[in-house]
Fold this sequence. Notes:
The strands form three sheets. A five-stranded parallel sheet has the order 10-9-11-1-12, sandwiched between helices. It has a four-stranded parallel sheet with strand order 3-2-4-5, with helices on both faces. It has eleven helices and twelve strands. Helix content is 37%, strand content 18%. Mean pLDDT is 94; it is low at 1-6. By secondary structure, the protein is of the alpha/beta class. The chain folds into three domains: 12-23 and 208-305, 3-Layer(aba) Sandwich (Cobalt-precorrin-4 Transmethylase, domain 1), CATH 3.40.1010; 25-108, 3-Layer(aba) Sandwich (Rossmann fold); 109-194, 4-hydroxy-3-methylbut-2-enyl diphosphate reductase, catalytic domain (Cobalt-precorrin-4 Transmethylase, domain 1), CATH 3.40.1010. This is 4-hydroxy-3-methylbut-2-enyl diphosphate reductase. Catalyzes the conversion of 1-hydroxy-2-methyl-2-(E)-butenyl 4-diphosphate (HMBPP) into a mixture of isopentenyl diphosphate (IPP) and dimethylallyl diphosphate (DMAPP). Acts in the terminal step of the DOXP/MEP pathway for isoprenoid precursor biosynthesis. InterPro entries: LytB/IspH. Dimethylallyl diphosphate binds at residues 53, 86, 136, 235-237, 280. The active site is at 138 (proton donor).
Amino acid sequence: MTQTVTDSPAKALTLYLAAPRGFCAGVDRAIKIVEMAIEKWGAPVFVRHEIVHNKFVVDDLRAKGAVFVEELEECPDDRPVIFSAHGVPKSVPAEASRREMVFVDATCPLVSKVHIEAQRHAEAGLQMIMIGHEGHPETVGTMGQLPDGEVLLVETEADVAQVVVRDPERLAFVTQTTLSVDDTKGIVAALNKRFPAIVGPHKEDICYATTNRQEAVKAIAPDCDALLVVGAPNSSNSKRLVEVARKNGCSYAQLVQRATDIDWRALGEIGSVGITAGASAPEVLIEEVIAAFRARFEVTVELVETAQENVEFKVPRVLRQPA
């Protein structure tokens, strides 16, 4: 007797797609700068540090002719070099100028704003405290705007209690642009309590894109059995999204670089999944993740939009086409 086997129907699954997500204006600008530099000067074009923290993006630019290095000393004098979106210490462009190199600064304008703030406070005689992550290239770049000892780093509220300052009446603070909004509020409150005279930024340093992506995650996290953040393990803003999801009602929140990283066994009997992406993750990787779910489930996608973004930053004049 012949037995007929029929496929069981796919399990229904709701995907909550966060918006805004993915590329921010600073990342988009930085990638365009590398592409335009290759078009203008030909390959190879050197890039100090990953232009943005995303392997897919870096590999794509490498295939087009970008060479990624960690230090300026790895670059030849006769080829252009681009500084990453995270910013660099003042010593880096100074050395490039000394070597008479062609260089283009792809620092995000919102990071540059923090650099300018730090310089302005220093000129007013204030010692700086920076809220940031030790070793992150943005933190290294911002602290490197001023002489050694002029910028003190704190990462937590506990650090605030231990920091030793020159004069508690002559202080200002800045922050890394990709921090947790809620965690940073606690650190700022601790700074204000210990140093009542401390001067803060005219406008919050955490950038619009970081804030918007965290707010979108807060909106979907309570309704999700699991939440996936598409992003790189060295991406500060992506890792913060995982933390925000866990703190706002979704106990299973994971960072994945692309669909092949999804742990399907860990997801188990789920009925809803949130999807977002860090500010350096391209939309093609989000589409890849959605397609992977469609291959396994009967998927309904619900877009949850908490803000609209229309920010655009111009590329440096040296790369613009004549009008």
